[in-house]
Specification:
Oligomer: heterodimer
Structural class of chain B: mainly alpha
Distance between the termini of chain A: 71 Å
Strand content of chain A: 15-25%
Distance between the termini of chain B: 44 Å
Order of helices and strands of chain B: HHEEHHHHHHHHHH
Number of strands of chain A: 10
Radius of gyration of chain B: 22 Å
Largest sheet of chain B: 2 strands, antiparallel
Shape of chain A: elongated
Number of helices of chain B: 12
Largest interface: A-B, 30 and 32 residues
Number of strands of chain B: 2
Helix content of chain A: 25-40%
Structural class of chain A: alpha/beta
Amino acid sequence: MAWFRAFFGLILLMCFISLGCSSKSSTRAHSLTIAGSTSVQPFAEKLAEIYMEVNHQVVINVQGGGSTAGIKACREKAAQIGTSSRELHADENDLTKIIIAKDGIAIIVHPQNPVKNLTLKELQGIFSGKIRSWSQVGWVDKPIYFVNREEGSGTRDAFESLVMKKGEISDEALVQDSNGSVREIIANNPQSIGYISFGIVNHQVKTIAVNSIYPSATTIKSNLYTLTRPFIFVLPSQPTGLGRQFVNFVLSPEGQQILEKEGLVGIR
Amino acid sequence: MQEKIIEKVLTLLAFSAIGLLLLITIFIFKEGFPLILKAGLKDFLFSAKWAPTKSHFGILSMIISSLAVTIGAIILGVPLALACAITLAEFCPPRWLVFLKPTIELLAGIPSVVFGFLGVVLLVPIIREYLGGPGLSLLASSIILAIMILPTITSISIDAIQAVPLLYKEGALAMGATHWQAIHLVLLPAARSGVVTAIILGMARAIGETMAVIMVAGNALKIPRSILDPVRTLTSTIALEMGYSAGDHRTALFAAGIVLFVFIMALNVLANLLMRKK
């Protein structure tokens, strides 16, 4: 029976420890929850990290879940700030929308691919499966392998509304679940084409001009590059203290500088 | 007194495992079934249009892909695994077996993401260069899965072959059979139930494998027409889309889980039936 009593003792002890922990954390009143787009998440984490270094008493939790989930969380008060990597829909306009940065959706191909420019129409043709050979857009007669993102992704949502308009992406598309793995496929297959966040482009892949304009900090900032989307913070119509303060920090020169260093395009 | 308590605790633990399985089953069905009713069983199972955010819930292409990948893995993997098992059980000196069997079992311990990575880096470019297509394909996933189910099938088959009483083999040899004749006419038929169980366990592993398949299959939603076409399995869809899913999209993924669950159940029932037939 001795081990039995020891077992119960252990459980009691664990209860006390967990009680102790919870009462300790509840004394930290200055906490802020940010939830939403997985594209915005790494940048929000970076901003939160730096903000917490300066303001020790503040705790900021950054969560993913997707743009729609973030907007919903903000409305249901589960998070003080929701994040979104797409424009708000008409029924979401009751919330305060703050654009914190801009991001281009870069069209990328393999460095060996000589194609330099595609029109929006050609892009639509490729992703809807109508243009099937590279010879139709000025290269050799080889099939085009186009890479799509998974259903529900914010980047895909933005790509569909900016490029495909009302058309549908063909279900022959290869599907990958992150910017990184799309880039990996393009870097390994000379005949492939895909789209990723401008901040993630590196030397492994080549960006293509859309309607003769290359994505760059300047063309994205001025909306000259067509495939530009905003990164948005969503707050309740009457934002409370800490949320407001954090937004002010993000919009300040310092916060914008951090975002630009991480690869986004600031709004100033 | 103490014995009684230990007995009770053990019984309780044993039933809690069964209870867990039951809870998981109930939960999956409770979450996913409303959507099957909403979309209609026929549309759900026999339509190939999957666009859950636009209210199209057809998983036909995924069912076909899952089955194709599994069958492909079995076709490629079983001969290899059986050859391996027969060699190790019958032709190898016992001293080698002590070393070789754990080595093959070690294959099972390699995380699936490593297999997927090797597939992307080594296998996919070879398929693209020499056979055509995007490389990310049914063939690539079948090959990777064949390697992954190899240790399961091999090691259970070895046990099955070694469990056949020595008398059988001695009898066959005494009647003038060669070593190979004794193996394929006497030993293998006698070990059949174990070998079939091994293959079915391998199939269950193949149908449930996710990570490696996501990496090498290409995940296109189209029904594959050749082994060089990209495919999307049921498990891949769940893993790819669960991060963002909400509402009907989420329940649709649970509904896909129900289909997987039914598959695995059917495989297990089949395994039991085949074993009893013997």
